[in-house]
């Protein structure tokens, strides 16, 4: 854990960035600033989430298509099974393929009502593994799936959750992106369990740079991620000190990623929440530097 992160430019780190589809023209402008700020870092890919029950279908499509055609970045579209027949989901996937989208993040999704148990549509895909198989039957998409270092709340046991991840990879996914977590050891233990289960596909740690602690607590409660007591203590008392809070946020995120890097992690997936500064700063600390536009476009091609 003593890697002198600030002493060298490793240049061996690959990053990806996740965005959500903007709800208004003003938010689209803001996202575009973020995309342009992060694009020079030549991410392996960026991805755009899909709202509960397909509520953002058109906005996700429009955002992904614009990132590919205007920012010339490799972009992935998230897609879920919720509240849709197989035919409806297949039609969305076919439209993506026609629009030049080659990478899908395939998810089961959650019911619209928070905490409600998942009930598959009677004519729909039953879960993410079923969706992956369906997508592969449509076109040779590159497919990413979700993984849970602290176990998915619906899972009977950590082993059952890893079996489920294995089913998604066996159905044709080529990598997984993890739910966020706040202790590097959580990811290292998960990585060991995956190796023991014979899973060798890349599993990218999902990094949520925390700046709004109250919002993070809400996200974590919804997905079962543990918030360490030390983190609560570090952000306490900073609600009315936004500049200091931002500096603390950067320090926490930098230390977190430094420890992941020291533990051998070389791929980082950032939940940007459509903000560039923290993700950019962490990338910089990890030795990721802007690249020429030509190199980025070569990656997108
Ligand atoms: P699955 O892999 O299908 O599994 C869900 C749970 O059900 C697991 O516990 C699994 O063990 C269990 N299970 C599945 N199949 C079986 C079976 N046959 N037998 C027994 N148990 C089974 N949500 C959105 O709405 N939009 C998004 O854009 C989005 N993006 C995400 C991106 C990432 C990187 C992550 C980590 C999550 C994202 N989510 C998104 C949230 C996700 O939809 C939820 O976590 C959802 O509850 C589970 O989706 P999944 O794809 O992991 O489901």
TrEMBL record:
Annotated Gene Ontology cellular component terms: cytosol
* Required co-factors: FAD
Task: List, alphabetically, the Gene3D superfamilies matched.
Answer: 3.20.20.220
Cite the EC number.
1.5.1.54
Q: Which UniProt keywords apply?
A: Amino-acid biosynthesis, FAD, Flavoprotein, Methionine biosynthesis, NAD, Oxidoreductase
Pathways per UniProt: One-carbon metabolism; tetrahydrofolate interconversion; Amino-acid biosynthesis; L-methionine biosynthesis via de novo pathway
Q: What would be an example GO MF term here?
A: FAD binding
Which GO terms fall under biological process for this protein?
Answer: methionine biosynthetic process; tetrahydrofolate interconversion
Q: Which reactions fall under this protein's catalytic activity?
A: (6S)-5-methyl-5,6,7,8-tetrahydrofolate + NAD(+) = (6R)-5,10-methylene-5,6,7,8-tetrahydrofolate + NADH + H(+)
Q: What Pfam families does the record tag this protein with? A: MTHFR
Q: What is this protein called?
A: Methylenetetrahydrofolate reductase
What is the gene name?
metF
């Amino acid at each position: 854990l003593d890697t002198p992160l600030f002493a060298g430019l490793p240049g061996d780190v690959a990053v990806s960035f996740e965005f959500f589809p903007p709800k208004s023209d003003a938010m689209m402008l803001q996202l575009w600033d973020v995309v342009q700020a992060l694009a020079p870092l030549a991410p392996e890919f960026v991805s755009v989430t899909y709202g509960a029950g397909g509520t953002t279908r058109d906005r996700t499509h429009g955002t992904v298509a614009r990132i590919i055609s205007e920012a010339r970045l490799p972009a992935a579209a998230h897609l879920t099974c919720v509240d849709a027949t197989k035919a409806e989901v297949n039609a969305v996937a076919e439209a993506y393929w026609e629009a030049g989208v080659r990478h899908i993040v395939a998810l089961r999704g959650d019911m619209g009502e928070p905490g409600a148990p998942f009930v598959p549509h009677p004519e729909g895909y039953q879960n993410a593994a079923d969706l992956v198989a369906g997508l592969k039957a449509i076109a040779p998409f590159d497919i990413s799936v979700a993984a849970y270092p602290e176990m998915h709340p619906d899972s009977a046991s950590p082993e059952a959750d890893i079996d489920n991840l294995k089913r998604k990879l066996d159905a044709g996914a080529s990598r997984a992106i993890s739910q966020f977590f706040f202790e590097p050891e959580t990811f290292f233990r998960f990585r060991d369990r995956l190796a023991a289960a014979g899973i060798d596909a890349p599993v990218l740690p999902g990094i949520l740079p925390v700046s709004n602690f109250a919002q993070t607590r809400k996200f974590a409660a919804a997905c079962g991620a543990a918030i360490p007591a030390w983190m609560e203590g570090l952000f306490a008392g900073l609600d009315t000190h936004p500049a200091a809070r931002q500096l603390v946020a950067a320090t926490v995120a930098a230390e977190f990623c430094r420890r992941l890097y020291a533990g051998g992690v070389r791929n980082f997936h950032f939940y940007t929440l459509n903000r560039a500064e923290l993700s950019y700063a962490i990338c910089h600390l990890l030795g990721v530097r802007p690249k020429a536009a030509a190199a980025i476009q070569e990656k997108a091609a």
